[in-house]
Design a protein that fits this description.
seven-stranded mixed sheet, 15 helices, binds NADP nicotinamide-adenine-dinucleotide phosphate
């Protein structure tokens, strides 16, 4: 099978997923609830437009925006155009794309509005031949997911139509705010939709390097025999953001870093790094292996929490010589807020492969750089025969899977420095994705997979519930820390987090 992205001068073999290349996406209507919002303008429409530009959307597709704002097709299109950051030469394509965008005003709790939506979709289906296939995208505040899901069921839009059209629903994070609410949300959604129809999106999973973790581990002989407690000292996972909460304080105050980053993105990176090889590369088998990792995480205990959890919140300071507000001073934030904007967690996976290996996971806002990576630190060699010549220290091998800003793989090892003298140096083998062919943005890829009915890049219900089960005690620990005001450590803006975590951040995450 020939690869569409195959570089002209590829020296080695390239093989592609035969199922995907062979199958064009099926016609469909995409309904975005919350179409007047931030996510739609910043992520969804640009992602759909990118797919449209490279002919990856079905020939027969439409996008229908639905939200309370009093818009019509024309004003919706004008609004999309206002926010559209086009590239030179895109204008004609953008106009053709807009012709496929429609709008239905809808009050999320009004049953009659869903009937109107159904009728409009029926009429559009006749004109645009969308074959009755529907993707519902919930780009609305999580509190109203159950409401919309129920109304779709009651309006008869959640089940496959007599004509055979399929129906799918995409749910944005957060999937609940703890185990109890996640279970309740799953239960409510299952009243109208089957698990097979639900796509819980985590765009991190669609990033090239994230997808590559499994290929690196399981398509090479080299790494897997070493990928265990016998050879690995520790694993570090970092997702650092430079920005503060910006305009999303309302959401963040209620969520904090554990709900915003750990329950979803960080846990997925952990699972990909730690899971066993599935028997085949199919979504249900991959999901099963990830869930086994989540089940094996040693439960968090209150004993010695300082060794396992460091929480922080950004304070006031200066950024580029201008005053920068503390988190507590941000608009919409409670001035006494104890919401953590930084966390560093040390956890252990209690299974044969990982027993005793610490996993350090850190994420925070307003840190020194925007950076995401996985660091795999191998153990030092058992015997150092050069010690009399070169001294005592020899750095152990380290593998870095860079996710942002550079999608890259770097392996460090020791080599002789060329010359007559015996000198050793650490060198790096370096693979950079940006040198390769065009890659799709993570949202575009996830949306395309949803249209293709592929669950690989989405969360299953089991995974969501298992991760909350592990994180619930940490969340209650956060509130206790905050309440006492003792354990929430403040940090300078554009630093690498609170002083308490700095040594870990430097040694383990190499910041
Ligand atoms: N924005 C992001 O970067 C981002 C990233 C990851 C996940 N998410 C998730 O994606 C979803 C949408 O995010 P967003 O940032 O686009 O949200 P948003 O802008 O706050 O809200 C989206 C739309 O929902 C409607 N809405 C807002 N508050 C409402 C309320 N209390 N009751 C009923 N309707 C309300 C509004 O439309 P109308 O008033 O016109 O109905 C609004 O335009 C959320 O679940 C969020 O957690 C967002």
């Amino acid at each position: 099978m020939e690869c569409e992205n195959k570089p002209a001068n590829a020296e080695f073999s390239v093989s592609c997923d035969r199922r995907k290349s062979a199958r064009p996406p099926e016609p469909c209507a995409i309904v975005i609830f919350g179409a007047s919002g931030d996510l739609t303008a910043r992520k969804l429409i640009p992602a759909f437009f990118d797919l449209f530009k490279i002919d990856r959307l079905p020939d027969d597709f439409i996008i229908v925006g639905a939200s309370r704002s009093p818009l019509n097709d024309d004003t919706f299109r004008a609004r999309l155009t206002d926010k559209h950051q086009g590239e030179p030469g895109d204008d004609d394509k953008w106009q053709s794309f807009l012709e496929r965008c429609f709008y239905v005003p809808l009050d999320y709790d009004k049953a009659a509005d869903y009937v109107t939506l159904r009728q409009r979709l029926g009429a559009l289906d006749k004109t645009y031949n969308t074959a009755g296939n529907l993707v519902f995208y919930l780009a609305i505040p999580p509190g109203i997911y159950p409401l919309v899901s129920r109304h779709l069921g009651e309006a008869g839009m959640s089940r496959e139509s007599a004509g055979g059209g399929w129906v799918r629903i995409v749910v944005e994070k957060p999937f609940g705010r703890d185990l109890a609410s996640a279970r309740e949300l799953n239960h409510t959604m299952h009243e109208s939709f089957s698990e097979e129809q639900i796509f819980r999106i985590d765009h991190y999973l669609a990033k090239e390097t994230v997808q590559n973790v499994l290929m690196l581990r399981f398509a090479n002989t080299l790494f897997e025999p070493l990928w265990n407690r016998n050879y690995i000292e520790y694993v570090g996972i970092l997702a650092a953001e430079k920005l503060g909460v910006e305009h999303r304080a309302g959401y963040y105050e209620d969520s904090g870093v554990i709900r915003d980053m750990f329950q979803n993105h960080m846990m997925q990176l952990l699972a990909l790094t730690a899971m066993e090889a599935p028997s085949v590369f199919e979504a249900p088998r991959v999901h099963e292996e990830k869930v086994k990792v989540f089940r094996s995480i040693k439960p968090f205990t209150e004993a010695r929490p300082a060794e396992n959890l460091i929480l922080g919140q950004y304070g006031a300071g200066k950024i580029d010589n201008a005053a920068a507000a503390a988190y507590r001073q941000e608009p919409g934030v409670d001035p006494g807020s104890n919401t953590p904007t930084f966390a560093m967690l040390r956890l252990f996976i209690d299974n044969w492969r990982w027993r005793g290996v610490p996993f350090y996971i850190a994420s925070g806002k307003r840190l020194a750089e925007k950076k995401t990576k996985i660091v795999v630190q191998f153990k030092a060699i058992p015997h150092y025969m050069f010690r009399y010549l070169l001294g005592d220290e020899i750095p152990a091998n380290r593998l870095i899977l860079g996710i942002y800003p550079r999608e890259e793989i770097k392996l460090s090892f020791q080599a002789k420095l060329p010359g007559t003298q015996l000198c050793m140096q650490t060198v790096k083998m370096d693979f950079q994705y940006q040198n390769r062919a065009h890659t799709l943005d993570a949202y575009s890829r996830s949306l395309l997979d949803c249209i293709n009915g592929d669950h690989m890049l989405f969360w299953g219900q089991d995974g969501v519930e298992q991760t909350w089960k592990y994180l619930d005690p940490i969340l209650s620990s956060c509130s206790q820390y905050g309440g006492e005001g003792r354990r929430l450590n403040f940090y300078e803006p554009r630093s690498w987090g609170p002083d308490e975590s700095l040594a870990w951040m430097r040694r383990i995450l190499n910041v």
